[in-house]
Amino acid sequence: MNRRHFLKTAGLAAASLAAPGCALTPTTVAKNKPNIIYIMLDELGYFELSCMGNKYLKTPNIDKMAAEGMRFTQALAGAPVSAPTRSVLMTGRHTGHTTVRTNPGGVPLRADDVTVADVLKKAGYATGGFGKWGCGDRGTTGVPEKHGFDIFYGYYHQVHAHSYYPNYLLRNSEKVPLQGNTGDFYKGKQYAQYLIFDESIKFIRENKDRPFFCYCAWTPPHGRWAIPQDDPAWRQFKDKPWKPDYNRPDDAKAYAAMVKMIDRQIGQIFALLKEVNLDNNTIVFVCGDNGGKRYFGNFFEPNGLFKGEKGNLYEGGLRIPMIVRWPGKIKPGTVNHHLWYFPDCFPTLAELAQVKPPENIDGISIVPTLLGEDIVGRRQRQHKFLYWEYGKQTAVRMGNFKAIQPGKDKPFELYDLSKDIGEQNNIAAEHPDVLTTMQAYAKQSHTENITGGWLDKEKAFKDHQSH
Hints:
- This protein is α/β, with parallel strands linked by helices.
- It folds into 2 domains: about 5-25 and about 35-385, Alkaline Phosphatase, subunit A, CATH 3.40.720.10; about 385-445, Arylsulfatase, C-terminal domain.
- About 25% of the residues lie in helices and about 15% in strands.
- It has 13 helices and 17 strands.
- The protein has helices at about 5-10, 60-70, 80-90, 115-120, 190-205, 230-235, 250-275, 315-320, 345-350, 365-370, 375, 430-445, 455-465; strands at about 35-40, 70, 75, 125-130, 150-155, 170, 175, 210-215, 280-290, 295-300, 320-325, 335, 340, 385-390, 395-400, 400-405, 415.
């Protein structure tokens, strides 16, 4: 189903439009559709939150969110790098089907791609995105304002997002010059994350009287680590005697301060929800976008005992923190082991908004897991298998089995994650029948990759030159 056909045929919140077996009963959600805030932090590792046992990075607001909501242990990214994982999240299609599968920067969605923002906007939601888009630069078919967002403020190109003191940010493809920023990566007069956070807050305030979808694809703690010297988080870490293996003397301390800053800003969002009386009718997601990167060795323990990191399809490249909170709807203090990944976000948000998603997505709604099977009135469906591809790598998850082909000319490896979460013991030779089945799943999951295009190459080229 293409975007034009979907937008002509998709209805609003009538129960008759819900997918078979997926209609929400009146007791499932509040009479008014819930507001949805989806906060995705760039490269936040699975073990980098203090609620996960981190001894260096204290995150009291996220910890409180976990205590008041549900923390998932088996939430997996859509891809091991920025652009593809965002494409999967937006389209609900895994990397064998989604449009953006590579990560050079600026590769766009197709004009007819349907995004979760399209669906929520059609369901009557105000839609705002703030931070890093990664699914199409200015002058392409993939810009967010053509894919369901009323407003998107921040970076479109993920390489542009590496700087916290850029010369400009974008608002619906219009450049917003940041006066006083010279292009220096580590200092300037205007700190981008402050501006992006302020726009996130502004959007929530301006839309407090209607349902809204606030997509906070914030860039910290990724990028060239930098934070204003007068930020309270920096003052907390600036004198730490840390000497891990890093490139610049203050990088590790800046990284830690950025995690602390984001935790503070998330706390401010929760305070705002209470202030405007939206706390009980707002579901908030906080997660990473892909596996962590061991920039400082194992100093901050981003992936712990998981093998690999950002860029590969071992668990270290895919396992992400995921916490969801909705007072009165999600049981507080829950640790949930349900296996799911980014394609599932699209149908989940669509069901919460009581609107039907496209038929060609790969995800399965996890609303029964979030709210309870008894409340929703059906059992949680499970995936037959989960699929990823990136570059010359392929991975398939089937129950506890994980099959990985780490390179095009390399043999598939097989692991039983219930016994070997660190993916150390390759059991491919012991289970040839299992591996054959999973290889067949991988083969059927890959389709030809057709990306979007450039409508104004000169504009896109000028942007690349100014990054």
